[in-house]
Design a protein that fits this description.
By secondary structure, the protein is α+β, with helices and mostly antiparallel strands. The chain contains 13 helices and 21 strands. Helix content is 37%, strand content 25%.
């Protein structure tokens, strides 16, 4: 099934319990028969300035829920850990029960809005590279004041049994950057600039794990088609209204609908590609299966073929021509032990990328590897010994044109970093 078809699977017999929380735009209910899960119900209300301005916008709940569900589906498919489970209805989704960390993490690519007021002298449109990170404590009475990292650490929040310390702050900071970059890359496929974005994290009450929670909808970001602020499609249009009229609200609603329709396109691949693994013998099958498995984790199709450039060069070149002839972008991976003829022959006869991934053996591996490393002039194949790394390198090539592959690579980088951070925290706790 397509990612979109997985979003909405209604459960009419869902037993809804007490209301756990209510915000300006949503309500949270416990699910009696599913402990650890909650129902997030959107409302038709739109607000600005901590609800100083608020209006009803018919259909907003469905629009916001569709947007959030698609965004979280994209992030989950990429490998980002979120509280989202699945869309329940037009206006609600199911999520894991979290205790929310009362911080809004704001990530900025382009200077605009409140940043300009707080930083006089910076011109609108200034581009942040790297991204600019800011934190705001959720306190409506004091207009959500900006906080420093030191203030967050000194607050010593304890949620679902987890104390928010340096490790947790670092994880949320690094995760915010990765989430922004993934959504920025996705929106770029629609020629739309993600200007800035706010997100929130929660602590899963069952696992004590920090996950992306709350919602990400058209209230959460600034979107400028073609990088042009005059075409903005986000809630800023509502904030900027001098007078709220029925005609003005229709303009706002059309913008929200535009985003909810476009966001579905973010789940669709913009390019196709494949990896073709050529093995010199079926004895190398286990090695090749590892490459195929790693390719699938990045969403890259992988085909396995058997051919020997030494024993059947004509057949090797015929197979090469087969995959060159259909126009699908291809990366060839040559798996040949002993004397590697596959990689050099392929590289010398195709303009497609070729990766050597020889299955080295303990006895002659140190000598055999030179047939992959030392190439005649005019050949450009690389050599990567690890099957997983060879697949990752191929995925990085496809990620240049396919945002879904790039997003998986970006999330994988984040998850590797987080696992190291948590391992270090655990080691320090054991040492103490």
């Amino acid at each position: 099934p397509s990612p979109l078809s997985l979003l909405a699977r209604p459960e009419p017999d869902l037993k809804i319990g007490q209301k756990l929380n209510e915000g300006k735009t949503k309500q949270i209910f416990e699910l009696v028969d599913q402990p650890g899960l909650v129902l997030v119900q959107s409302k038709d209300q739109i607000t600005a300035g901590n609800a100083v301005r608020k209006d009803q916008m018919e259909g907003k709940a469905a629009i916001a829920n569709k947007t959030t569900s698609c965004v979280f589906k994209l992030l989950q498919e990429s490998g980002i850990k979120t509280a989202f489970v699945k869309q329940h209805s037009d206006t609600a989704f199911i999520a894991t029960h979290c205790e929310m960390i009362p911080i809004e993490w704001v990530c900025r690519r382009v200077a605009t809005g409140s940043f300009l007021k707080r930083n006089p002298g910076v011109k609108e449109g200034y581009r942040f590279s790297p991204l600019k990170m800011e934190m705001f404590f959720k306190d409506d009475a004091n207009n959500d004041p900006q906080w420093s990292e030191e203030q967050l650490l000194q607050a010593k929040f304890c949620l679902a049994g987890l104390t928010i310390g340096q490790c947790e702050v670092d994880i949320m900071n690094r995760s915010t950057v990765a989430i922004f970059e993934i959504l920025e890359k996705a929106w770029a496929t629609q020629n739309c600039t993600l200007v800035d974005m706010k997100i929130e994290f929660g602590v899963d009450v069952k696992t004590q794990e920090i996950v992306l929670a709350d919602v990400i909808d058209n209230d959460s970001w600034r979107l400028w088609p073609a990088g042009d602020r005059s075409q903005q499609k986000d809630k800023q249009v509502y904030r900027d209204l001098k007078e709220v009229t029925p005609e003005a609200m229709q303009v706002v609603k059309r913008n929200f609908e535009w985003v909810s329709e476009r966001v579905k396109l973010l789940l669709e691949s913009q390019a196709s590609g494949r990896v073709v693994v050529l093995m010199g013998s079926t004895s190398d099958m286990a090695h090749c299966e590892k490459i195929k498995k790693a390719c699938s984790s990045y969403g890259v199709p992988c085909v396995l073929r058997v051919t020997s450039a030494h024993k059947g060069p004509d057949e090797t070149l015929r197979i090469k021509a087969e995959y060159e002839g259909d126009g699908v972008p291809t990366v060839f991976v040559a798996v040949a032990g002993r004397s590697n003829g596959l990689g050099p022959v392929m590289s010398g006869n195709t303009a497609y990328p070729v990766i050597n991934c020889p299955p080295l053996t303990p006895d002659w591996g140190a000598q055999d590897v030179w047939s992959s490393l030392r190439m005649p002039s005019g050949l450009g194949c690389s050599t990567i010994l690890s099957p997983d790394a060879a697949a990752q390198f191929a995925a990085q090539i496809f990620g240049l044109t396919d945002h879904l592959v790039w997003c998986k690579l970006r999330a994988s980088m984040l998850n590797t970093w987080v696992s190291l951070k948590l391992a270090d925290k655990k080691l320090q706790a054991c040492s103490l």
